[in-house]
UniProtKB/TrEMBL annotation:
The gene is frr. It comes from Maritimibacter alkaliphilus HTCC2654. Keywords: Cytoplasm, Protein biosynthesis. The keyword Nucleotide-binding does not apply. One of its GO terms (cellular component) is cytosol. One of its GO terms (molecular function) is ribosomal large subunit binding. HAMAP family: RRF (MF_00040). This is Ribosome-recycling factor.
Amino acid sequence: MADEELEIDIDDLERRMEGAIGALRTELASLRTGRASAAMLEPVHVEAYGQRTPINQVGTVNVPEPRMVTINVWDKSLVNAVEKAIMESGLGINPQTNGTIIMLPIPELNEERRKELARVAAQYAESARVAIRNVRRDGMEQLKKAKAAGMSEDDNKIWHDEVQELTDKYIGNVDKTLETKQEEIMQV
């Protein structure tokens, strides 16, 4: 058999691990840190036109001040639905409506809430680590198949080390990302 057929697709494994990091960053961006951010509304979906729709597809989201997010809802009939979705989202924000503009004042976080958000961030990071380890497991399965198909012991060891090195790199990225977010959350 040709060596190309026995190789592991490291680029695919790396792309999938990078996807886990991207998903983690998106989840962490939705965590409120006491500063206003349009990203905190990304997980919130509104019941609009018969389907669940992201808020940024029913209105313009702006951050005019460090402690304020505004949503200019395009369709006046959706204002109440957007308001309801925000209240039910668990963000802990009470919307204030002025016509088609919904204002979201971001309150200061107390110590207990900061610790709770840090725990949530840690859960998101653990999910990312699990996803990365699942990609590693897939890579190891590919190695077993390649070894059964005739890959040499030395080549198998080289690929094994490369997959493990990639895994360690991305687990380290998760840890650094989590540490940065937890510092940001705990900052008063």
